[in-house]
């Protein structure tokens, strides 16, 4: 027992000595560690950002204004199989006209007037047999297509309604890179979705519309856009419409940080044309152009890389008559700086044939200014209305200028659409309503004057005619008139 007590007391004394040693030697080391780190941190250089994002930007008013003016669009279309079309050819509509399956697609649209005009993307409504428009208050109305513009991927539709909430136009030319914008639409069928971002770039060409005459001068933004947003609104913080959302750049099919919208200044022009004429009044300078980079500038002996290079001038065009020459460099149009093909296309796309623009060019290191009267693709300033129908006695058919969507559907650039076929050689040859005559006697057709001129060139009254059916089947005829 005595030995046990001695051992116990010895253990207590030993433990006490250990605690004393830890207190005096270890504790100061533990408490010194954060002080040492703090001193090191104080010596680290502090780098302040040159730009601090504003924290007081209020998106609520713009969002509240926009969601009620952006609609959900559902399209239904009947699709015949490729085998079916190939087998029946131009007579497919006469045999088993209901032999088809249905496809349903979704998108967005923007109300631009209280009486029911709605702008959207052409690819949202292209080929639609039925269009259903759903508003933010869950009302559903049937829409009809007023006109389309495949070259800008825009379409105008109409619903029968009054006193609708709508968006007013802003000015996309005044948008600045870094400016806040909101994207409003219906991604993945989620109605009334609002996302925010900034303008990342302007006048982007992403080569999605295909045709050489397409206008691609997109606003790039990092606002989140996904499937179903197509045709929706891009608005500024005041709630003004500055663009129509059209596309995303993605490897997966969903948002990856890059979204693109059609500038509202182009939208305004297209909408006005479709309302007034049913057809886009497209204006051209009449030149061939290319972008300038450092290598090209060196090869051509150009002192600067800004502007757009004139690679050729079309005889009789507005640019030709004004005095612009091959080798000139276009610097600005009506005070708008031009540094890329997409900027030039986007700027000219806002004008009509007959409009006059001031073009500043650089030639031999000197600036010159020219006044250019823009013309249409036919080389005139005549306004073309899509509904103008005329009769041709030689062919015994009634025709009109082909609509943009008719041309786009069969991937052609010109033609006259048959609207009525009377008894005669063409009817016996299988020509039906909707057939597009593209060429007669080697002359490409865009107007009544083109057709009359082409028929006058008939040698020994022989007519060579080429055309295409709505299903894409191309044919060629030769007959005596």
Would you summarize the structure shown here?
The protein has 481 residues and is of the alpha+beta class.
Could you characterize the architecture of this molecule?
The protein has helices spanning 2-43, 60-67, 82-88, 122-125, 264-276, 294-300, 318-322, 341-348, 404-409, 425-428, 448-456, and strands at residues 70-79, 101-111, 117-120, 130-134, 140-149, 154-158, 180-185, 193-204, 218-221, 233-235, 241-248, 259-263, 287-291, 308-313, 329-333, 336-337, 356-363, 366-373, 389-392, 397-401, 416-421, 436-440, 443-444, 462-468, 474-480. The chain has 481 residues and is α+β, with helices and mostly antiparallel strands. It folds into three domains: 57-280, Thrombin, subunit H (Beta Barrel), CATH 2.40.10; 287-373, Roll (Pdz3 Domain), CATH 2.30.42; 389-480, Pdz3 Domain. The strands form four sheets. Strands 19, 20, 21, 22, 23, 24 and 25 form a seven-stranded antiparallel sheet that branches. A six-stranded antiparallel barrel has the order 1-2-3-6-5-4. A six-stranded antiparallel beta barrel has the order 7-8-9-12-11-10. A hairpin with a 5-residue loop joins β10 (233-235) and β11. The protein is globular and about 80 Å long. The chain starts with a helix and ends with a strand. The model is unreliable at 12-50, 81-89 and 94-99 (pLDDT under 50).
List the helices and strands and how they pair.
Elements: H1 2-43, H2 60-67, E1 70-79, H3 82-88, E2 101-111, E3 117-120, H4 122-125, E4 130-134, E5 140-149, E6 154-158, E7 180-185, E8 193-204, E9 218-221, E10 233-235, E11 241-248, E12 259-263, H5 264-276, E13 287-291, H6 294-300, E14 308-313, H7 318-322, E15 329-333, E16 336-337, H8 341-348, E17 356-363, E18 366-373, E19 389-392, E20 397-401, H9 404-409, E21 416-421, H10 425-428, E22 436-440, E23 443-444, H11 448-456, E24 462-468, E25 474-480
Antiparallel strand pairs: 1-2, 1-4, 2-3, 3-6, 4-5, 5-6, 7-8, 7-10, 8-9, 9-12, 10-11, 11-12, 13-14, 14-15, 15-16, 15-17, 17-18, 19-20, 20-21, 21-22, 22-23, 22-24, 24-25
């Amino acid at each position: 027992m005595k030995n046990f007590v001695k051992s116990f007391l010895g253990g207590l004394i030993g433990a006490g000595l250990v605690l004393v040693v830890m207190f005096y030697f270890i504790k100061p080391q533990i408490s010194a560690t954060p002080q040492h780190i703090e001193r090191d941190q104080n010596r680290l250089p502090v780098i302040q950002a040159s730009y601090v994002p504003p924290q007081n930007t209020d998106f609520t008013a713009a969002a509240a204004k926009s969601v009620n003016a952006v609609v959900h669009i559902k399209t239904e279309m009947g699709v015949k199989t490729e085998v079916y079309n190939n087998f029946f050819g131009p007579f497919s509509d006469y045999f088993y006209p209901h032999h088809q399956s249905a496809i349903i697609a979704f998108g967005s649209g923007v109300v631009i007037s209280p009486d029911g005009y709605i702008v959207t993307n052409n690819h949202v409504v292209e080929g639609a047999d039925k269009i259903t428009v759903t508003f933010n208050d869950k009302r559903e109305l049937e829409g009809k297509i007023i006109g389309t513009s495949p070259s800008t991927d825009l379409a105008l539709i109409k619903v029968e309604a009054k006193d609708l909430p709508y968006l007013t136009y802003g000015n996309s030319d005044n948008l600045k890179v870094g400016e806040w914008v909101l994207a409003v639409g219906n991604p993945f069928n989620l109605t009334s979705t609002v996302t925010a971002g900034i303008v990342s770039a302007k006048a982007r060409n992403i080569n999605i519309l295909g045709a050489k005459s397409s206008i691609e001068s997109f606003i790039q933004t990092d606002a989140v856009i996904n499937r179903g947003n197509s045709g929706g609104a891009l608005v500024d913080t005041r709630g003004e419409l500055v663009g129509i959302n059209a596309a995303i750049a993605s490897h997966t099919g969903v948002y990856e940080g890059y979204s693109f919208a059609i500038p509202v200044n182009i939208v305004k022009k297209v909408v006005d044309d479709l309302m007034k004429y049913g057809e886009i009044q497209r204006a051209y300078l009449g030149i061939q152009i290319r972008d300038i980079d450092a290598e090209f500038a060196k090869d051509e002996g150009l002192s600067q890389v800004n502007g757009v290079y004139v690679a050729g001038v079309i005889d009789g065009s507005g640019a030709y008559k004004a005095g612009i020459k091959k080798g000139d460099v276009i610097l600005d149009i009506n005070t708008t700086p031009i540094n890329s093909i997409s900027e030039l296309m986007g700027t000219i796309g806002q004008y009509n044939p007959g409009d006059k623009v001031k073009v500043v060019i650089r030639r031999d290191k000197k600036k010159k200014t020219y006044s250019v009267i823009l013309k249409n693709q036919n080389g005139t300033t005549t306004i073309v209305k899509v509904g103008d129908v005329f009769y041709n006695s030689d062919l015994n058919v009634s025709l009109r200028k082909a609509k943009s969507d008719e041309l786009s559907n069969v991937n052609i650039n010109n033609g006259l659409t048959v609207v009525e076929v009377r008894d005669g050689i063409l009817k016996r040859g299988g020509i039906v309503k909707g057939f597009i005559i593209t060429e007669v006697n080697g002359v490409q057709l865009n107007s009544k004057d083109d057709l009359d001129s082409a028929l006058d060139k008939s040698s020994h009254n022989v007519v060579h005619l080429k055309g295409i059916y709505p299903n894409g089947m191309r044919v060629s005829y030769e007959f005596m008139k």
